[in-house]
Amino acid sequence: MIVQSAPGGEADAPHFVIAMHQHTAFAGSLAANFGNSEFDGLEPAEPMQFIVDHHDQGWADLDAQAPQNPDTGLPYNLTATPLPQIVTTSAGSPAFNEAHHPFSGIISSMHTYGLYRGRYGLSDKIFLDLIPNDLRPEVDAMLGDEESRQRRLKEQLAADDPDHASDDYLFHAYKQLQFFDTFSLYFHLAPEGERGPSDFLNVPRAVGDDVTISVVERPGGEYGLDPYPFGEDGLELATEGRYLAPQPPGTDLGAVLAATPVATQTVRLVGM
Fold first, then answer.
1. Which pLDDT band holds residue 126 (cuts at 50, 70, 90)?
2. Axis crossing angle, helix 167-189 with helix 20-32, rounded to the nearest 10
């Protein structure tokens, strides 16, 4: 679950709380509109769209429970979630996506593996280094299982769709997913007016051809991108979530959130 910071950093104010399926739905809307004369779109389209739409499926049960962070009175934010709970979500997404299509399963497994391994060198944040010694055997076993999953599914994909089974192509698709995920987090972690400029590295225009996309926040929920990777200039997209103020200790946040009306935050993406 993602708990967006409140405007001005006011801890007692309502926060926009985004379930992971709402986060991935926004990422999926980015993916569905990605591609133009400069940027290759999704290929194979349906399995790639599916994995973007479900890249955090393993969080579904935990999000429904919405365990409370005693320090905030809100659900645990994504990176503040206790490590044992994060570890339990890790294999769920690849298993779910593998059941849909081998390509979806491979990219999902790479996403899980990459989160622990510095996104295959694309990030200097090595989550594995934060895992305490008592959890390392479980995490190491999970990562070993994901390596085995990837080898098995690559063999299956190579037999059915060799054009999309090469390491170069799979890494291209993986980097597309990382852009959709991290660009979504740019909007989801901070409120409008506090997102500021940002750069997104290693965004693929084509296989082996990556660029940095610079983003500038403008008034009124508009964001300028250079270069612009989407098919429609002036693309308007919305994130669903629920506004929740800090609750007393012991509150069943899952029930509170389920009874809270869904709200939206809208952004407009334009070329610069």
1. low
2. 120
Is the torsion defined by CA of 148, 150, 151, 155 positive or negative? positive
Give backbone dihedrals phi and psi of 71, rounded to 5 degrees, phi first: -80, -20
Determine the straight-line distance between the first and last CA of the chain, rounded to whole angstroms.
32
- Mean residue pLDDT across the chain: 94
pLDDT top residue among 108 and 131: 108
Residue 266 clears pLDDT 70, i.e. is over it: yes
Sheet containing 222-226, strands listed edge to edge, beginning at the edge strand earlier in sequence: 2-3, 15-18, 235-244, 263-271, 222-226, 209-218, 198-206
SS3 68: strand
Distance CA 269, CA 272 (A): 10
Burial class (CB within 10 angstroms; exposed 0-12, middle 13-18, buried 19+) of 67: middle
- Residue 50 burial class via C-beta count within 10 angstroms: exposed 0-12, middle 13-18, buried 19 and up: buried
Q: How far apart are the C-alpha atoms of 4 and 18, rounded to whole Å? A: 8
Q: Strands 235-244 and 2-3, how do they pair?
A: unpaired
Q: Which residues of 151-182 are buried (b: 16+ CB within 10 A; e: fewer)?
A: eebbebbeeeeeebbeeebbbbbbbbbbbbbb
DSSP 5: P
pLDDT over 90 at 116, yes or no: no
Q: Kind of pairing, strands 235-244 and 209-218? A: unpaired
What pLDDT score was predicted for residue 123? 76
Alpha helices in 60-166 (DSSP H): 60-65, 83-90, 92-98, 102-116, 118-121, 136-160
Full-model pTM: 0.95
- Measured between alpha carbons, how far is 191 from 5 in angstroms, rounded to an integer? 7
